Queue: 2 jobs
Job 1
Amino acid sequence: MAGDILKRHSLVKAAKSLSGWIKVKTSGDVTADPCYTFDTIMDISEKHGLSSAFYFIADHSTDKMDGLYSITHPEIRRLLRHIYARGHEIGLHTSYNTYRDPVQTAKEFEILKQTCEDEGIQQTTWGGRQHYLRWETPTTFCNWDAAGLDYDTTLSFADRAGFRCGTCYEYPVYDVVNQQPLKLRERPLIAMECSVIDECYMGLGNGEKALEIFQQLKNTCQQFQGDFTLLWHNSRLVEVRERRLYEDILHCFGIL
């Protein structure tokens, strides 16, 4: 509510936030949370014949930087089942301090897999990304490979969308220190919404300038018959303009 008033300068949004908070607390209806946009994401994806991947934090390696929810909470378990039932993918969103920690990485993947197994969720492929795109090569590659994950899609620069890997193709990973191939595959992350939108990064907002950048990146991927991998946080679909931008991107791309 403070953000609605001080940052977004909207008493109407503050009132809606208060109303949603009261509804969640009194009735337990988590869909009243403005950040509960999972059905919106799936609706938009399915409208364009796409399938989305939702990455969940399974454990916490720091109190300050990781998500506040527990993957064992009944509502999170219900959400996992709901996503799976609609034919979308579930993956791992490792916690803040995992990028140098193979033990914690493996622990979090096991928690996610066990939770999904308990809920009757079965997948042939498991992947995800690092929190805050934190990375160390080849340490993080090796962590994911040792844990048994099939793919990572972390590699992008947070401050500028584009081709950190120099390619838009999924590729097999190689451990350059131990000079051996890994089973893990990398899916280069081409664009994260906040990299383009936020003032602390490219600062293009959520209008035509931002859409133009996404289109340019998409066209480059298309030119070389590659994959445009887009990361969009569920909390960035609360604003009408951000939702409209997201829908415009998917409408233009036809790929996710």
Job 2
Amino acid sequence: MSSNDPIETQPEETKNEHGHIKSFVRRAGRVTEGQQRALNNLWPTYGIAYEQKQLVLDAAFGRQAPCVLEIGFGMGGATAEIAAAAPETDYLALEIHPPGVGNLLKLIEEKSLNNIRIIQHDAVEVLRDMIPEGSLAGVHIYFPDPWHKKRHNKRRLIQSPFIANLVKYIKPGGYLHCATDWEDYAIQMLEVLSAEQQLQNTADGYAPRPEWRPLTKFEQRGIRLGHGVWDLLFTKK
């Protein structure tokens, strides 16, 4: 949490001690001074340490409210914007990279947000060990690593076993919202989500971008260049 050293990149085929292939690598990058200050000063308030113990969501946020899980928030800009626009909802945000965690903590302070909590750990293990089944009003997975080389496709997060497990934690009537700017990954996402019997598509194929998902700067640039973006919005039956 406190080092400014470059983040070590893991070998691509490494499995963790629990045996699942990780869908991410620890990319090289440095934590800025501002991000480090946020990590030092704000993590005790808005951060939640990973542990093999079920999390009491109402206690974590200090109130009773619908809770949405975000998996992989990057630098946190969209997360902060979404949370600011929906103060009645709590957001549990997962990210492994310290610069992103530090940046979201800065945004929490700048925007005076109290409806975000952060866990810096592998989402598969957080779900297994910390999230109560049937507790989530929704899940956001925006622009996960596409692992675009065919030999790396098996590392993609959106796979049938992961989704079959994930839906256990969503309340009936809750939603799963994914977005990607890689067409072949969008096709895979649609196939995987459509095949999950507990999920129902809200659209005929891909969905329009919901108003709650802001356009990222990267996404806006891609649209100007003619790149596609695909949203998928499913609800739990």
